[in-house]
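Why do we bother with holo predictions? Because pocket geometry can differ from the apo form. Keep that in mind while you read this record for zinc ion.
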Amino acid sequence: MDEKGLVCGLDFDTGILTNYTDKIERRLKDMKGFFLDEEGADEEVLIYEVFAVSAPKEEGQLSYATTIIYPGKIGQEFFMTKGHYHRKEGAAEVYVCLGGKGILLIQTKDGKVSHIEMEKGTVGYVPPHHAHRTVNVGKDNFVFLAVYPSDAGHDYGEIEEKGFSKIVVEEDSVVDGGVKIKDRPKD
Ligand code: PAN
Ligand code: ZN
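The structure, written out:
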């Protein structure tokens, strides 16, 4: 970001934003309870990183971030983000895939899930009031840019407690690359 916050570089190969203002690293140990079967998994494994250029959290301002989700699985579930609703529920968001292969899950408040298959060049829209999570279903890094109102905020609580109604898993029996989106088993 330049000193006035008007320009920033984006490395299309790595997804790294030059001069980002915030960086988040999420390892399995930072995501306790988000995957269904963590048994035996290395809790230090790096699942994803976020590079954000954050404008002041004021009405009308936009922030943006790239996310790099590494390839891998915890149990049968592919590496994924925590997923969240926006604290400001009316805030929507645009996702642009820069590389890799992923799924964007979009869930209504009453648990209905839609999904978008993301590959380089796919633009996904997250409408207001919807939870959203991304999943890397490929063999390479899944990288995307997200643009969102700066005052949107993140509300992880409900997802941490209940998860999404659908999970994304690898199943050998499925023809299409083994990727299956299925109902989350009831606890
Ligand atoms: C994204 C996400 C990012 C990481 O920038 O915050 O992909 O996902 P979690 O926040 O769910 O861990 C976004 O949706 N911002 O609003
Ligand atoms: Zn969001």
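The two ends are 45 Å apart (CA to CA).
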